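In this notation, each integer encodes one residue's backbone shape. One such record reads:

___
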Amino acid sequence: MSNATPDSDYPLSEVPSGARKGLFSTAILLFGFTFFTATMFAGGKIGMAFDFTTLLWAAVIGNLLLGLYAAALGFIACRSGLNSVLMGRFCFGEVGSKLSDMLLGFTQIGWYAWGTATVAIVLVKILGLPEGLTIPLMVLFGFGFCLTAFVGYKGLDLLSRIAVPAMLVLLVASLWIATRDIGGLAGLLAVEPSESMSLSVAITLVFGTFVSGATQATNWTRFARSGRVAVLASLLGFFIGNGLMIVAGAYGAIVYQQPDVVEVLVLQGLSMAAVIMLFLNLWTTQDNTIYNFAAAGCNLLRTGKRKTVTLAGAGIGTLLAIGGMYELLIPFLILLGSIIPPIGGVIMADYFYAHRARYPKLADARLPAFNWVGLGAYLIGALSAYFSPWVAPLVGIAVAALAYVALFELNKALAGRQQVAGA
């Protein structure tokens, strides 16, 4: 008997054909997910280090690579109906998959704490509220932001349909005012970089800032109606959506020395628009983040009680925000940004190479407690990413995938020898 019910978003099983969604629903949800304040700060760093033309090239290359990575995983998710944590059972084993559950879940709860603290602190500052309201606001938003995730895919979809068009309007208006303030395109192109950075570091920043999110975007692309829908939605969300955030952050840094669009809107005299942007920007990422945590938590605990795990996650994230631990978590979360992508590399190699692009039904599969091929490949990929001087997340993905193929063939050869020796 399945552990999932139709209204539980299938936390422990494949998404059935009757629950699949079209391109608009999938794409706008991913768009809302990638509209993330932290990405703008990466854009801001790049904006101060390059002329505008080179900046655009860095944004295009980095976000195209990110979009292709998300699209490859999205295609697998759609075809299998599984998300990354459920696919982890095939490539890491029944018990081994708990490693990826903990890594992915902890990353998401850390970002949730950061977003919850940020919205409370910035609102107090923008609206001139008493400092004593900061913690009550953290509690309010810590549980408030999880409401759409508590409902499930339908709640996330509804919010995105309202929030994404509103944010796009505010973003375009802000960019237009910024272009006017700097003296048009000629003024923008005339700005000289004030800092230095290599192109590979810039691409690493663009790709690495949200690659952990791309690894877990399978939570929604598995609902896609077809492989084409999953691929197109991933490219729209991560290439276009994330790209807009990078460019907006760079624009703000060049014109106002401030990468955050919320702060930029305040400088432009649009304080109320800034509050709306802050609220929508963080909510559309926060609810997706806690939904990701719930998906990882359900697989870790082998429970179908997604709503309970969602509320528990919101509570943990709120406590981390109130305790100020979110400030300490950020460096660690950025580290995880380089060691999480190899999970995606292992998943791709396991699906396309070991399973020949077809998983058996999860309920019928007889899986080992530990898949040492997948775990070994992940370790090699993660170490390569950590010590890589080049684009660390890309190195981690590629090395993990190649290591999986090599270890898979080695394991097969060893098993063949044992059979011959035992005959």
Observations:
- The chain has a mean pLDDT of 91.
- The first helix runs from residue 23 to 34.
- The radius of gyration is 22 Å.
